[in-house]
Amino acid sequence: MVWFIIVLLCLGNSLAQISDLTVYKDSELEERLLSLLQKLQIEQMYDTLLIYGEDCVFPSLFTSLPVSTVLVSSGSTNFDWNFSSLTLILSCGFQAEREENYRTLIKLQNSRRLILLSENIQPETVCDYYTKKEQYNIAMVKENFDLFGVVHSCRIFQERKYEKINLFEDKTIFKEQFRNMHGAPIRTLSDMAPPRSMVYRDAKTGEEKIIGFVANLIRHFVQKVNATMDMQVKLIEAGTKISFENISKWASEDLLDIGMSEATSWEKSNFDTLSYPYLMTSHCFMVPIPDVVPDSKIYMIIIDPPVLAVLFIIFCIFSLLLIYTQQKSWRGLSLSSVLLNDKSLRGFLGQPFPFPRHSSRILKLICLNVCFSSLMTTTMYTAYLQSLFCNPPLQPRLHNFGDLEKTRFKVAISSYEMLMLQRFNLCEKQLKIFDNSNQFSYFRNTFNTDYIYPVTSVRWSTFKEQQKLFAYPLFYYSDSLCLNLFDIFSFPIRRHLPYRDLFEEHILRQHEFGLPKYWIDRSFADMLRLKITPFEDLSPPRLNDKMHLDDLYWALVMFGTGLGISCWCFAIEFLGSPSFWRRLRESMWLRIQN
């Protein structure tokens, strides 16, 4: 019995020592991990800890760090967490992170990950596993980290997939690996739509090159990260032409890394396959410049009703003054004597009229004012008439789509842009829809003035420069007929692009130096140099400026109207005379007697 008690005491002492050793070991591991987390904080600040799993030492560390901590013991989040890019992920094992929330995966793709491995897991296996998931900022520590202080960090562009780093070495654990891709390919494809992308062959080297304000940005990014441009021409089916719609579709299907074209953003529920905006443009219509007003309508333009009303009032005032000044009373005043006053009427038409004899000073002053008014009126209308004949005005411009129904113009548009035009409820007979965007671009380049065309403000800048080669401009850019006043130009990219942040940083850097604006400004010169745009005048010859009988239509109408009124007045005056009827009766009586 005594020996049994002694054995129990020895066994209890041994268990206590083992327990103390385990607690000491765990505390040593915690201290080492805290040192590692502090080093990572110095390398790159993080403001949130996301811990997957619970059966390890990581959950006990958050109380020692002044950062927010999210514990995900199940390995996946149930909510759409709005994690920032400053989140550090800790995993309690090789596959403790089993995230199934798609939005969370997108937000945390480029976040740094620190994984606690058991002794039997090899770092190569872990690096290959996360590489397939396109998560590259991976570092690992084993359970003996408190003894050796070794961190295994994954490396992509090396023969060995990881690098051993001692905690106390002055080495960076997480590297920006995609800043030097060591010639790795970037899959892309161009829609060959000038001036975005234009292909030419170098005369000196014979090498095929590509330029344009879209192509230049991607070329410079490929050079910056030391990669190679892999044009995925195999995606083009035989006999078909590529378009920006297909390139956006291929990027969303992960067949392209970055598309060398504009991204289709219409009716997208999210921006996973769109880059940071490259350009802000408007998407409006280029409209033919209105025709000049026909010569036959110029006469009606210069006759402004308010001006005629004022002149008529002045004419009546002069008639009243002449009548009163000559007769010194209102006895002879009548409507016909005012409206058909001989002196006032002739004076206003700039014709000579008999000057009253023995006229007073007031009468002379009134006649002088009549002559001055006639001079001003005839000079004004003659100047207007001659000026408008030399430089006829243009007809009114279109202000909305309702005005389009009153004109001869039709709308030429691609099927993709037709989705944005449907809300304006245009008649089908006014539309010419192209299923292929390249065919639409070719038709728009013909400058057919029977149609209006949708165009971005960036593309319009080249059309505006091209029209300087013409004898006269054919189109103008309408700010009132628009599909979208604020259009975003982005690049199509695949969802899990690991260097998305570097590409978007590159976009911002290019804008800081003003390179996109410089490329856009010289786009037309490049198109001329590469013979994409012809160096010729596409404006039709103007008709000879000859006067036709139809151009005098309103002049003849007014002349005939005036002549008819004069004849009517003469007939009334002649037939209203008593002597006329007396002589008529006498002549008829003589005929009867004879």
- What is the overall silhouette? elongated
Average pLDDT score: 83
CATH 2nd-level architecture of the domain at 28-175: 3-Layer(aba) Sandwich
CATH topology of the domain at 28-175: Rossmann fold
Structural class label: alpha/beta
How many H/I helices?
A: 20
Question: What's the level 1 CATH class of the domain at 28-175?
Answer: Alpha Beta
How many strand units? 16
What summary fits the major beta sheet?
7 strands, mixed
- Cα separation of the termini: 187 Å
Spatial arrangement of strands, main beta sheet: 2-1-3-4-5-6-7
Give the radius of gyration.
Answer: 45 Å
Plain-language structure description:
The protein has 594 residues and is α/β, with parallel strands linked by helices. It is built from 20 helices and 16 strands. It has helices spanning 2-43, 102-107, 123-132, 145-148, 215-224, 244-252, 295-302, 305-327, 335-339, 342-348, 361-390, 401-404, 415-421, 437-444, 457-466, 500-512, 515-521, 523-529, 553-575, 578-593, and strands at 48-52, 68-72, 87-91, 112-117, 138-142, 150-154, 162-166, 185-188, 198-201, 208-211, 228-231, 279-288, 410-414, 431-434, 451-456, 475-489. It is elongated and about 155 Å long. The termini are far apart. Mean pLDDT is 83; it is low at 12-25. It is found in: Cell membrane. The chain crosses the membrane at residues 298-324, 552-575. It is a multi-pass membrane protein. Keywords: Cell membrane, Glycoprotein, Membrane, Receptor, Signal, Transmembrane, Transmembrane helix.
